Amino acid sequence: MTRKQRRKGTGSIYQNSRGQWVAVIEAGWTERGTRRRVTLKARTEVEVRSRLADAQRRVAAEGTVNSFASITVKRWADQWLAQRERVVRPGTFVSDRSAVDRWIVPTLGHHRLDSLVPADIRKVASAQENADLALPTMQRTHAVLGKILADAVAEGYQVSQRARETNGPGTGPSSRQALSVEDAKRILAAAAERPDASRWVAALVAGLRPAEVLGLTWEMVDLEAATMTLAWQLKALPYQERRCPASGFRVPRGFESRHLVRAYHLVRPKTRAGIRVVPIVPWLAEALTAWQTHAPTSPFNLVWPRDDGSPRSAEFDRAQWYEIVDEAGVAISLPNGGVRRPLLYEARHTAATLLLAGGVDETTIKAVLGHSSVLSTQAYLHTDHTRTHAALAVSAEMVGLGR
């Protein structure tokens, strides 16, 4: 075994009896007051010198370092998910797990964290692009990967800054659109023929989220005061073990929920702004009064349940919406000349745009829609320029440019 002497405090390098190159560096003190020595190994002298130099930089930047060990992306992602499910909402965890299991681990799982380079990070987006995934999905996966790597660094693992700062798949305009006033009228005319017409008015006029609609109970509706309190949303929570109800539900610390039946729960909104009281317009009040007399009896007192009184699934609700828009003959034109059905969530976009066109200020719209910031509201209002045009016209007239 040949040991190469180095300047005191900079570590030492030697080749052991098995032919491995070994570097030893002092990295602070143990709890017992003895020096902490960390051993690094590599197949070549050049590689071990590189690892030693990286370790020296970390000690200089971070002080005492508990470990210079590295693990694969898959092993760390498994640990990360186990921690993640304890602190984020169940829906967020399911989305994170899907990104990890379907794209991040299959593409990068065998790489060591400390060996990742920007080209590796870009492989994930390339794989998704080759699979014709939508840009928002690619952006979401990139954000999850960024969080995984940032948390790895916080845990003490080494991930190069270049890898962590790799640009994402880019940005683009939202594919969601607001319906025109005429299209909204046609949809409401078709919905008016249905007993549950009030459900669709709640979306197109009041801008309720689908989960808020499905989680609304009669005790949260005050027809005399013409208000409804939005304090819960209907969500199907994931089981601890997939497709195994006996395993219980994945519920993070501090998550407030009320179990209804099967996987369905009433859960609190993501932000405090989501809990709000919304006025009920006269037409909707009349429709709700009529609906209350012959709505299916629900053991959970849901306003819009299925015919047997059980909660409506999101899939069932979307199917009902598509029946209505098909009957109304409403379609969204695409840039490539094609058409598609309006998405149910685009009813919420439409409600926001109608409020803006009616002269309602953005702060009030924020309160009605339950946004946590005006920036969230602005994302819904990009398609309507009537109000800004009128404001600029007034300014021009004030300085003598009225024509």
Computed structural class: alpha+beta
Strand order of the largest sheet: 1-2-3-4
Contiguous uncertain segments of 5+ residues: none
* Computed CA radius of gyration, to the nearest angstrom: 29 Å
Q: What separation lies between the terminal Cα atoms?
A: 91 Å
Mean pLDDT: 85
Count of helices? Answer: 15
Give the H and E element order: EEEEHHHHHHHHHEEEEEEEEHHEEHHHH
Beta content comes to 5-15%
In short:
With 403 residues, the chain is α+β, with helices and mostly antiparallel strands. The chain has helices at 45-62, 73-84, 90-108, 118-130, 135-155, 161-164, 181-191, 197-204, 210-214, 282-294, 314-328, 346-357, 362-369, 374-378, 386-398, and strands spanning 2-4, 12-15, 21-29, 35-42, 221-222, 227-230, 233-236, 239-241, 244-249, 257-261, 264-267, 276-279, 332-333, 339-340.
Topology:
Layout: E1 2-4, E2 12-15, E3 21-29, E4 35-42, H1 45-62, H2 73-84, H3 90-108, H4 118-130, H5 135-155, H6 161-164, H7 181-191, H8 197-204, H9 210-214, E5 221-222, E6 227-230, E7 233-236, E8 239-241, E9 244-249, E10 257-261, E11 264-267, E12 276-279, H10 282-294, H11 314-328, E13 332-333, E14 339-340, H12 346-357, H13 362-369, H14 374-378, H15 386-398
